[in-house]
Amino acid sequence: MKKEKKLKKRKSSNTEENSPSHNHLHANVHTLLLASLANLRTNFSARTLLTKCINNLHNQSLNPSKTLTLINNNLFLSLIPPLLRTTKSIPPIAERTAEIIGAISLQSFECNEKIASDNEILKALLDALVSSNKKVSMAACNAVLDLSTTSLAREKLCDINAVMKLM
Prior knowledge:
Blueprint: H1 2-18, H2 20-38, H3 44-61, H4 64-71, H5 74-84, H6 91-107, H7 109-116, H8 119-129, H9 134-147, H10 151-159, H11 162-166
Helix pairs in contact: 2-3, 2-5, 3-6, 5-8, 6-7, 6-9, 7-10, 8-9
């Protein structure tokens, strides 16, 4: 009896994850993230919304089953550099974004290489390394270390002179 309940629960949660409403919600997070970034300077509530969206994405990045969906979303990947560049205006956003990069890059080689092959992400990550905010620079350093687990990422980091910034 208990096994049947667990099986039903698993099936329903898998169905929910693949349902159109779940995909719609997932797309909405990215849309909200983009809108929040665009209105960050003029609208204070955009900061709150941005923080909530980043926290949502951080939780997704810790779940291996959702990581591939997250990393295959080109909108999310294109938003990483501007999110990392919020270091001066909203350090917790840049910090959390660096943590997301680290978490995703450790999930699989495919995820790691997808991030490592994007020069804009790597450059923004290196810019965050030299942040005056210690938490941001520490999160960026950890993300660089996490990315460095693959040879492709190490090669790409060398190509953009990451070693000089790390020193």
